Amino acid sequence: MKKEKKPANAAAKTAGVEGEGSYTAARRYNEGVKRAVDSGKTEELAQKAKEALAGPEGPELERAARIGKKGHPKLSRETS
Fold it and tell me: What average pLDDT does the segment 72-80 reach?
């Protein structure tokens, strides 16, 4: 008996993987931003972020921000 072959993306959909443009991740991010704004502590959170950037972990945070904006070279699908 021959097994029916499923398309490659069918397995990912059944496993709950959304891939690039994840609606779940976008929803969680948006909810987190809304909670932060609704808390009324945006000035406090901004000050904590400023202090973290000025502190010992600052260079690592700056590097992470650059990678996040540009995309990590090992994870990038673009070829040079």
Answer: 59
